[in-house]
Amino acid sequence: MAPPVxxxxxxxxxxxxxxxxxxxxxxxxxxxxxxxxNSVAEIIRYALQRRLSVGIRGGGTKLGWVRGxxxxxxxxxxxxxRLLEHPWQDLTCTVQSGCQWEAxxxxxxxxxxxxxxxxxFPERATVGGILxxxxxxxxxxxxxxxxxxxxxxxxxxxxxTIAKSGGKVVKNVAGYDLCKLMTGxxxxxxxxxxxxxRLHPVPQHARSFSITAKDANCxxxxxxxxxxxxxxxxxxxxxxxxxECYLDVCLNAHPFAKQxxxxxxxxxxxxxxxxxxxxxxxxxxxxxxxxxxTVTRIATLPVxxxxxxxxxxxxxxxxxxESVSQSIGLHDVALRGPRDEVVPLVQKLRxxxxxxxxxxxxxxxxxxxxxxAYEISTPVLSLMxxxxxxFDPNNIxxxxxxxxxx
Amino acid sequence: MxxxxxxxxxxxxxxxxxERGLITAANQLQTYECDGLTAFRVPPAAVVLPETTxxxxxVLRICHRERIPFVxxxxxxxxxxxxxxxxxxxxxGLSRMNRILNIDLPNHxxxxxxxxxxxxVTAAVEPNGYFYAPDPSSQTVCSIGGNIAENAGGAHCLKYxxxxxxxxAMTVVLPDGQIVKLGGKTLDTPGYDLAxxxxxxxxxxxxxxxxTLRIMRKPEAVQVILAAFDSISAAAQSVSDVxxxxxxxxxxxxxxxxxxxxxxxxxxxxxxxxxxxxxxxxDGPGVEVDLQMAIVIEICKQNGAWETRLAVDExxxxxxxxxxxxxxxxxxxxxxxxxxxxxVIPRTALPAVLEKLNxxxxxxxxxxxxxxxAGDGNLHPIVLYDRNHPGEEERAINLSLRILDVCVxxxxxxxxxxxxxxxxxxxxxxxxxxPDLATMQRVRRAFDPLNLANPEKIFPTPRLCGERPRGHYxxxxxxxxxxxxxx
Lengths: 406, 487
Hints:
The complex is a heterodimer. Chain A is α+β, with helices and mostly antiparallel strands. Helices cover about 30% and strands about 25% of the residues of chain A. In chain A, strands 15-12-14-13-17-18-16-19 form an eight-stranded antiparallel beta sheet. Chain A has a five-stranded antiparallel beta sheet with strand order 5-6-10-8-9. In chain A, strands 1-2-4-3 form a four-stranded mixed beta sheet, covered by helices on one side. In chain A, a hairpin with a 4-residue loop joins strand 8 and strand 9 (about 160-165). The longest helix of chain A is centred in the last third of the chain and has 16 residues, at about 340-355. Chain A starts with a helix and ends in a 15-residue tail after the last helix. By secondary structure, chain B is α+β, with helices and mostly antiparallel strands. Chain B has helices at about 5-15, 25-30, 55-65, 120-125, 145-150, 155-160, 165, 195-200, 230-245, 255-265, 285-300, 315-325, 325-330, 350-365, 390-410, 425-430, 435-445, 460-465, 475-480, and strands spanning about 20-25, 45-50, 70-75, 90-95, 100-105, 110, 130, 165-175, 180-185, 205-215, 215, 220-230, 250-255, 275-285, 305-310, 335-340, 365-375, 380-385. In chain B, strand 5 and strand 6 (about 110) form a beta hairpin.
């Protein structure tokens, strides 16, 4: 955080670049909201010259995630919020990164299309923030993650250079695919100002079902059967809180294919019952992040999902554990309890992870402030640090997020 | 770089890969002097054929110490000169690393070495009802390592995505000999998506020696339809209409009259004789495929298809695809030499671009035949020529590169799946501005600060393209292949 005198100086300088109406001071940090990519570039050049750290923000829904140092300037992209282009016959769109996710989807829906991703907090989260954090929801089972959906980007680099990567066609292997590098880089390499997505037709026949069980292991054979079946499963998740455990299935097939009946038979053959539910179940992840919960993201192999859920819930009596797990092997797990119970639990998880194939990331620190969000070991860490040095040698963009700079 | 450093390290290389793993005889080196783009040839200084990750590491350590450039090579089927050796380079041929290491059906994964042939991945899991989705036309001979380098696609990537969509984890030997694991068998490994940027980097960031791929459940039902049209535009309109109807076929391909005839002569797929053949594959639950196929047929008829023929059984489908995938090789029946291009355009620009392209071919008095992945706008114009006619090869190369300019002007890309390699380096500065290219170089410097991994590829260099962005300047092939230089 900058001292007050410096803060007002920064505020004045930024006002000179963007106009005073685009600069304010909130919570003792200067926030600037440029309205175009050129202003973003100018702000970055200014910050570089003065060696000021810049925190990049979109809708602010995940600012607490993978926290780094408190920056001296917040650069908000909220005014870069327009859908620039939607050539619907080409199934693509180009949008500014400050556009709210739901606003984008509503605009695309006019032609029955959407970006096939269901991220957290779509009514507030922005395109850029979702890209920077590589958020993805249950629909990933069917459509893949952002890396499969984003085909082009405009970037402002840490020296103010404006560069493009990729393009506006889905198939394109010309040069390095920087879009993949930027996706999930938490704004530590460059600022995304525009993104181009490939689109899909909005699913016409999606129906959701829920199956109740006493624990996840009871569901494991059914999950395996669904995964190896021909069912057009759009999403498949296991939710567990204390002794309440559910399997949610979203099918997206033409009614004539009668896949609901096939699923129903499969469920009954496993001695279980299913009922149709509203699509609200696919927003279950959001409640994990409420309050001061510590939220970890655990990645396991797909076949280990149910076992992992039950093991987690048996780990601590003093910590309230709530999990939403995608059958592809991604678990979001909320841990609620006193710090001196949650910290050892996270450490224990990491010890187990170190000796097996899975990873444990602390995406929302909650009460465990100070524990590293990610554990990345050398030599791949050195390679990532080398990439960071090439893109941001003075470490001004979101410093300390993801990893410390060597 | 020292002038002739190779000879003094030959015994070291031999110690690593053994006598059988080292090639230095001039006649044997000839095999490695080009890939599928035969117009460009440079003999390497030596070829090593390692069998393990550690051997690759040993070789790269020596290259790093001696500052010797190296070029990875799979089956050598690439069409853009990606595996073309640099002068005084060592080619690292990975064809002996051809083992399937692990099949994990419950997790839908398979782990393979880079020399494994693409089609053999599917063959290994097919009896269990799975397949590996990326299917470049050369899939019966091309290797997974080469697919990773080029981010290979294929007819079915319209629905299923490219190589990058299906690679989960890689063991990579970096240009300094360090071994790193990129990605993981579980999703979203912490930190930057380095696997995402490595795939498609055309061997310029290191060498992948082990890869875990995602395999998929084979669809319940598959149907292929052949629709015959009197014009490419009518076929292209059908493609747009199918997309607009909200369906996502597994593949949509168009062939023109010349390529139909060539395919007919070479593998007899029994295609209808027409000016434009549209081939659409649908897959999914049987009932759903039936419903969608009815819609597709209706769309084709509305756009003037005078024959729609369903390939009903597996054998009929096999023949249909065999004809399509033989299209490049079949061009050899039409002309002694040919160049396959790989431009991409927004689907909707297809009719306008084709018209322009035909006019350009006519002006050059060259024949161009067209086969394309119409669903994703990936054109494969095949420029036919005869090397023995003075000046014709130069005109053909020139035309094929100008076609790429047209693709860029239409809002597309110079390459959809073949890569930039040596062939399209100078076109890169037509597609990207200098800052865009400089940004990519930052990645390269992080991985390969000494610029040893497949140098002189992808990026335009002053030597090849002149100091200024290319515009319409095209290097003479003699110059481009490194035999002569422009001063």
